[in-house]
Amino acid sequence: MSAWEVAEERARAVIGRPEHRDLGVVRAEDAAEFARAAGETGPRLTDPGHPGFTVHPLYVVSLLRGAGGAGQGEFRPDGMYRDEVPGTDGLDVRLMAGGQEVRFTGEVRAGDRIAVRRVLTDVERKGSGTPFLLLTVEKTYTAERGTLARVRERFIVR
C-alpha cells in the first residue's frame, strides 16, 4: 500500500471525529506583530497602545498553537505541524494547500481565550493518472462570548 493510501485509510477512520484545542489568550502584542508582518501600517492594528486598537481579523485563523508555539517533535520534515493534515503523521507524502474559505462571525479582542474545534469532514480521491487525496477540514474558532470564525480548508495529499 502506498503512503497516500495509508493516509486515506487513516483519514477515513477519523471523519466526523472532533478535535479540540485551547489556543490560549490573545495578547495584544502578538496580534500587533502579526498585523505588521501582514504589511499593515495603521496604528489601529499595529499599536496596542492606540485607543482604537483592534485585532486583525485574520489573526485568529492563523493560530495553530497557543503562545510559545510547538516543540521540535511536533513538526514534519517539510516544516508543517505533524497533526495539521489528518492521517499523514509520519508518512512520506507531499502536502499542499487546496484552498481556504473563511467566514467571520465575531470580533476577536485582546484578552480573549481562543479555542478551536476541528473536524475532518471529507476525503476524496481525485486526479487522473497519478491520483491524490483532497481532504476537507472544518474549524470553528470560539471565545467565551461565542463563535469568532468558521474555516473550511482543503489539503492535497500526494
UniProtKB/TrEMBL annotation:
It comes from Streptomyces endocoffeicus. This is MaoC family dehydratase N-terminal domain-containing protein. Residues 14-147 form the FAS1-like dehydratase domain. Gene3D superfamilies: Hotdog Thioesterase (3.10.129.10). Pfam families: FAS1_DH_region. The lineage of its organism: Bacteria, Bacillati, Actinomycetota, Actinomycetes, Kitasatosporales.
